[in-house]
Each structure stands twice: as structure tokens, then as C-alpha cells.
Inverse folding.
């Protein structure tokens, strides 16, 4: 593959990535929390960027609550333990509520909805919903990683896989990749829990605006990575 073909392929992947509203939202989120880290809650250019980007991001999330509402009423994967099902549905319900209330907050911040006190109250309730959904996600990921770990160990015993054979076994590689993806999602949910706690000022002495910004920026980078499209498989030269 010549350099022009490589460049064309990379640009096509970039276009595919940036065409996703979710990807643009996460890029804006990284800018928002990076600005919060730089401002540390102090007035200035960085804080203005933080506030304006936060407001702009709410447009990307219009009607997004439907996604988790659909997941809430959808059937679960057969064989999933009841505690994980309940945690997963709780996460969907809380996240859907957060996204719905966030739309009302957006209406209030833009001046369409005039009741400022209720806007602030709904904004705080929505953040508590996000905090709850992040905690539920953390518990779900811990449970799923445990299930995958047990499944991998069982597969190793059944197939009597050696270290040299593991990478050749498609089933083993698939489960290992799922475990890695779950581990990354676990890290992200833990970071998001810290961000929500920071925005709610539940521990202002420990989770300062700068800490909140750092946690949010790291979480945003993980989200951006998770949304990356898979490159096409390389073809062997003939």
C-alpha cells in the first residue's frame, strides 16, 4: 500500500470518527475538563471556555435519554445473574433521568426556561443521578470482569492451553479482549464517579475543581479512545 493510500485510509477513518456526534461530544468534554483543570475554579479565560463548552455539549445530548430508556426496557442477555441485571437496569434508569433533566437545565441556562432556582435544583438532581449511574456501572463492570476471569480460567483448564497456544485460540483471545475492554470501562466509571462527586462538591477539601478537571479530562480521553473505529485489516502484498 503506497503512502497516498495510507493517507487516504487514515483520513477516511478520521472522517468516520468525527461524523459521530458522540465522538464530537467527548472531544468537547476533554476541552471542557481540561479548561476546568487549568482554571481551578478561578475567573478567567479558562473558566469561560469551561462554561461555554459545557453549555454547548448539552446540544449534543438532546433526546439522548432515549438510548438508555430503550436499554432499560430491552431484554437482558441470557445467563446474566440477577444482581447484575438489577444494577444494569438501575444504571439505565439513572442515566436516562440524568440526560432528560439535563435538557431542562440547558433550557434554563439558555434563558428559555425562566425559573433559575428550579433550574439549579434540577441540575443538582441530575448530577446525583449521574453519580448513581456511575456507581452502578462500576459495580456491573466489576461483576462482569469477575465472570470473564472465571470463564477464561475454565477455558484454560478445558483446552489445557499453554502460554504459546493462548494467542492462537480464537475463543481465548475474544474473552481476553472483552476483559480488557471491561477493565478500561471500569477505570472510566471510577473516574466519572469522582467527577460527579466533584461537581456536586461532596468533598470540596479533597476533590477541588482542579482534581475534578483532571479526572474528567482523563475520563474523556478514555471515551475518545473507546469510540475509535477499527482500522481495516492489512492486505498482504502479492
Amino acid at each position: 500500500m503506497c503512502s497516498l493510500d495510507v493517507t487516504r485510509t487514515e483520513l477516511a477513518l478520521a472522517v468516520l470518527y468525527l461524523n459521530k456526534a458522540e465522538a464530537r461530544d467527548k472531544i468537547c468534554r476533554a476541552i471542557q475538563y481540561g479548561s476546568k483543570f487549568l482554571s481551578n475554579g478561578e475567573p478567567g479565560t479558562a473558566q469561560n471556555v469551561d462554561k461555554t463548552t459545557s453549555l454547548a455539549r448539552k446540544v449534543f445530548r438532546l433526546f439522548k435519554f432515549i438510548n438508555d430508556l430503550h436499554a432499560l426496557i430491552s431484554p437482558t442477555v441470557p445467563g446474566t445473574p440477577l444482581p447484575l441485571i438489577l444494577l444494569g437496569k438501575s444504571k439505565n434508569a439513572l442515566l436516562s433521568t440524568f440526560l432528560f433533566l439535563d435538557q431542562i437545565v440547558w433550557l434554563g441556562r439558555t434563558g428559555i426556561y425562566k425559573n433559575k432556582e428550579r433550574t439549579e435544583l434540577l441540575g443538582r438532581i441530575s448530577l446525583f443521578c449521574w453519580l448513581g449511574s456511575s456507581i452502578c456501572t462500576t459495580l456491573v463492570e466489576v461483576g462482569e470482569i469477575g465472570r470473564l476471569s472465571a470463564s477464561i480460567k475454565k477455558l484454560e483448564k478445558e483446552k489445557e492451553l499453554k502460554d504459546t497456544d493462548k494467542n492462537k485460540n480464537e475463543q481465548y483471545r475474544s474473552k481476553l479482549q472483552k476483559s480488557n475492554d471491561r477493565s478500561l470501562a471500569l477505570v472510566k466509571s471510577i473516574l466519572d464517579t469522582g467527577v460527579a462527586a466533584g461537581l456536586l462538591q461532596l468533598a470540596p477539601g479533597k476533590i477541588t475543581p482542579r482534581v475534578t478537571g483532571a479526572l474528567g479530562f482523563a475520563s474523556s480521553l478514555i471515551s475518545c479512545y473507546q469510540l475509535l473505529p477499527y482500522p481495516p485489516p492489512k492486505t498482504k502484498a502479492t
Observations:
- Residues 108 and 117 are 10 Å apart (CA to CA).
- The first helix runs from residue 3 to 18.
